[in-house]
Amino acid sequence: MNISSNATSESARFPYSARPLMVLLVDDQAFVAEFIRRQLVSEHDINFHYCINPVDAISTAEKIGPTVVLLDLVMPDIDGLMLCRQFRNHPTVCDLPVVMLSSTEDSVVKAQGFAAGANDYLVKPPDKIELIARLRYHSASYINKLQRDEAYRALRASQMRLEELNMELLQLANLDGLTGLANRRYFNERYSEEWARAVRTKKPIALIMSDVDRFKVFNDHYGHLGGDDCLKQVAATIKAAVGRPGDIVARYGGEEFIIALPNTSIEGAVCVAEKIRADVEQQAIPHPFSDISAHVTISLGVAAVIPQPGTDPATLIKQADQYLYQAKNTGRNRVQGAAFSPDDPVSVV
C-alpha cells in the first residue's frame, strides 16, 4: 500500500539541501500511515512513502531511496527492533537514519530501540511540529553525509588519477622517447643500485654494450625516419631477448644500447649477447650499403665482475665498451667479452 505526496522542494523551508526529503514509514496499521501523511501533506519538500509489510521494508528502501525511516516498534512477523538490526546490517541501507515509533514511553523499550541501532524515538501519535523537526534534522544529517561521502570519493578519485599521472610522467621521464627503452639517466641510477647490491651480496654483475653496425651509412641512405625505424626494431629485439624482470635494457646514446644483468656470470652474459646478435640478424632489416652484411647487424662487448667495496661502477662500463670496440675492430657482427683479469682493481667472476 502506497500513500505519497510528491512536490518540488523549497530550499527556504528545508535549508540543508536542495534535495527533497523522502520519508519511508514501515507500519502494519494503515490508519497510522494516514495520520502521518496528513501531518506531512502541507510540507512541499517532503515526499512520503508507506510500506505496510515489514518484510518488504529493505527492498522498498533500496528502490525509493528514503532520507529517513519511520519504523513501528510492534509489528507481526518482524518487530521493529529486529527490522532495525536488519537495516543496520544491510550494506546499501545501513546508514539510513531510523526513527522508532512506539505507543510507550517506557525507558527500557527506548533503550532497546537505541541498542538495535535507532537514531531517534517518537511516541505515537507524534506531535506534528516535533515530527517534522526530527524528520528534517535526521534527513539533513543523512543528506550531508551522502554529500561528504560523494565529495570524498571524488577527491579520492582525483588523487588516484593524479597519482597515475605522476607515475606516467615519472615513467616518461625514465624512458627514451624513440625506442621506449630506459634512457641513460635512468640506467645510471638503476645500475648504481645494482652495483651496490652486488657488492653487498658478493654476486656477479655483467654488462653488454652494443652498437648498430654501419648505422651512419644506413641513416644516410634511408634518412632519419628510416634510421629511427631501424633503431626501434633493434631496441624491440634486444628487449625481447632479455627476459628477466631485474635486467636493465637502455638506449645509451645514438645507435648504442646497454644492458645490465645482475647476478650473471660472464658465460651467461655472453650467451645473452649472442642471442641478441643472432636475433637482430634474423630480423633481416635491409642494409644494402653495409660492408658487413646485406642486413642490419650489431656488435656487442661483454664484461662481468664481482665488485669489491669501494670500486667504481664506471669501471665495468669502460671494460664492456673496450670489448665492444674490439668486436667492431675485428669484423663487427660479433660478441667480444671476458671477465676482468686478476690484475684489474676488481675481482674476476
Relevant terms:
349 residues; alpha/beta; Rossmann fold; Alpha-Beta Plaits; 2 domains; 5-stranded parallel sheet; 5-stranded mixed sheet; 9 helices; rod-shaped
Any overview of this molecule?
- This protein has helices spanning 30-40, 57-64, 80-89, 107-115, 128-174, 184-201, 215-241, 266-282, 314-329; strands at residues 21-26, 46-51, 68-72, 98-102, 120-123, 205-212, 248-253, 256-262, 298-305, 335-339.
- The radius of gyration is 38 Å and the shape is rod-shaped.
- The protein is α/β, with parallel strands linked by helices and 349 residues long.
- It has a five-stranded parallel beta sheet with strand order 2-1-3-4-5, sandwiched between helices.
- It has two domains: 21-150, Response regulator (Rossmann fold, 3-Layer(aba) Sandwich), CATH 3.40.50; 184-339, Alpha-Beta Plaits, CATH 3.30.70.270.
- The longest helix is centred in the middle third of the chain and has 47 residues, at 128-174.
- 36% of the residues are buried.
Summarize it.
Helix content is 47%, strand content 17%. It has 349 residues and is of the alpha/beta class. Helix 7 packs across helix 8 (266-282).
Helix/strand structural class: alpha/beta
In DSSP terms (H or I, runs of 4 or more residues), the helix count works out at 9
Distance between the termini: 86 Å
How many domain regions?
A: 2
Look up the CATH topology of the largest domain: Alpha-Beta Plaits
Give me the CATH superfamily of the largest domain: Reverse transcriptase/Diguanylate cyclase domain
SSE order: EHEHEHEHEHHEHEEHEHE
What value does the average pLDDT take? Answer: 89
* CATH architectural label of the largest domain: 2-Layer Sandwich
